[in-house]
Amino acid sequence: MKEKFKGSAKAILFPIVAVILSLFISVFFVMWAKGYPITQYFTALSDLVSTIWRGSFGTSKNVLSTIAEVTPLIFTGVANAVAFRCGLFNIGVGGQFVLGMLGGAMVGCIPGLSPIVHIPLMILAGIVFGGIWGAIPGFLKAKFGTSEVINTIMMNYISIALANYFILRTAFGVPGKSSSPEIQASAMIPRFVESNGANYSIFIGIIVAILMAFLLWKTTTGYEIRAVGINPYGAEYGGINIAKKAVLAMVLSGAIAGLGGATHVAGVKHLIQDFMVVPSYGFDGIAVALLAKKNPIGCILAAVLFGALNSSSRALQISGIPKEIVFLIQSVIIIFVATDYVITYFDNKKKKGEIMNG
Fold this sequence. Notes:
Number of strands: 0
CATH topology: ABC transporter involved in vitamin B12 uptake, BtuC
Helix content: over 70%
Mean pLDDT: 90
Number of domains: 1
Radius of gyration: 22 Å
């Protein structure tokens, strides 16, 4: 019981410490940018924290902008967390998000449907498209043992090429506009304020996070997924089919990412444009999941942090602080989190050595 409490306390405290330390380190760059002397370190710290807070939560408009940034990060963070729990590194969440956008936009353009039918149908399309796109590298991993990292990276580029083909080369796209038609009003998820992209899909994201936490910790399937992630050989010895669980984890991960893509179209974009690069939400979702220690519920809080940082970039520029400070803070957080994983890895290796020698 004591060890369990210590583990839970560490899981909660370490991300908080990582965030605080990243802010303290980033202050030096604020001092350099604004010409603060070293004696005004805490003045610069106060300036940085207050500007981030003001830019993300200072006004109702800023709060709505932050919600719009947070929503896709919840989906991609949870998608990555599910894959991580099975010991898989799903770099393709961004591509699965794109396929979810494509599937959602296609269904969203169908005329004559009631919102009661149209919105769930659009969401279902995103889940199916993203799930299939996640299943492919999962199957290749299970069947042939190929690296899901390499496969998902390659599939990211295939996803934007496929989406661009439909937008630019088929009747689905609008001629001369490099975009799809705007989805029907019946497929649009209501916004909090019409002029801002913040919408009710954030509640869908929160529900998905709660459901995934329930699945992982309160069901046999979730236990088996986690067991494979902790020790695949031990799990196989215990009768768990590793291949099936790998495919299932990738399908779930892709489906959640695809759901995020569909809701992004339904609530924010209302159409899709041709893609030059893979949306950054997938890669940001990796950072969200790592900071949350692979916990779906923790992904909500981590997404709020990263979303607030992204939302405050304009306020930082206005205050004379380079917006790149946001990426610096995020990078330092990831470094600290990664350090924890490295320490844990060597600690576990040491314990195994002691057991073998004992």
